[in-house]
Structure formats: structure tokens, C-alpha cells
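Lecture notes, unit on protein representations.

Consider one protein chain, 189 amino acids long.
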Amino acid sequence: MKKFKPGAIAPAALSAIIGAGDAHELLDVRTPPEYASVHVPGARLAPLDHLDVAAILARHRAGSPIFVLCQAGMRARQAIEQFERAGCSDCVLVEGGTQAWIDAGLPVHRGARGPLPLLRQVQIVAGSLSAAGAILALTVNPWFAILPLLVGCGLLIAGITGACGMALLLARMPWNRGQNRTSDCCAQE
């Protein structure tokens, strides 16, 4: 097994490790519906909003890398921060997440089409609220301009901090919650 320093790995390099049969742990911290629609072969589902770091570390072999990915990288970074706070420095970010894996033409498991990816949901909701607020401000009352202002400020804060309140809220919506929300959903393929 090749030694890894904490940091990041490109999807192609991780694919080579998986293809070589090297022991690895690969966690996908997206929502169950995102995982069900498409995921990297061998990735184990561990949704960020239900991430049980202690349980994962209880079966983890110290010094062995834990590769972490999400859709594009933001949630994976948050998961890695949780592992680091628990004293684990073995986590490796999969650069660009599942989307970069797909873009690299690497194999994936595809399931039933589920809800739209969380990022697209945020874009739709933010765009709809901003457009509705602007139209209402122009046609009904100028005070409705506060709505696009608040949405814009929320997006600015999300960009600066890397934590999007709207995404966290949308992740908890019923359509983004799979039937398997317990540790049963985290079984390795």
C-alpha cells in the first residue's frame, strides 16, 4: 500500500489505486439520493449530515488513507474537518469530487434518477427567489427588493465561508432524504 500524506488526490490517481487492488477506504458524503443516482464504485455512503466519525474511526486502521468525496469538494472538506477535530489526519480529499471523476471518464455506478444535485437545487431556489423579488419590487412594492438582496448576501456568505445555509436546508427536505438514512445505508458495495 502506497503511503499518503493528508491532502488531495486526483480522480485518475485514485482510480489507479482502486484498480491495483490496494486497500483503501472511500467515503461519499453526499445525500442518499445523490449517491443512488451515481457514485464511484466501492464508495461507501456516509452522508455529511449524519456522519458518524467515531464509528468510522472505530474500524479504521490508523495510517491508512480515508479518501473522501462529495459532488464537487465542499462537503468533503467539511467531513475531513470533522475527522481532523476527532484526531484523525489520514483523510485525503478527492479533488473535484464525483463530478471530476465523471468528467475524467472514469467508471461509475448509475442508479435510478433521483432529485437534482444539491448545487442545482440551490441555484434554482436562489434564482427563483431573486427573480420573484425583483419582479415584485418593480410591480408591487419597492420593499420586495429586500428579497434578492438577502439571497445575494446569503450566496456571498456561502462563497466566503464555504457553508451554504440554503444547501443545508435543502439537504433536509424529504425529496433529498433517501429511505436509508441510518448506518444501514453505509454498506460497502
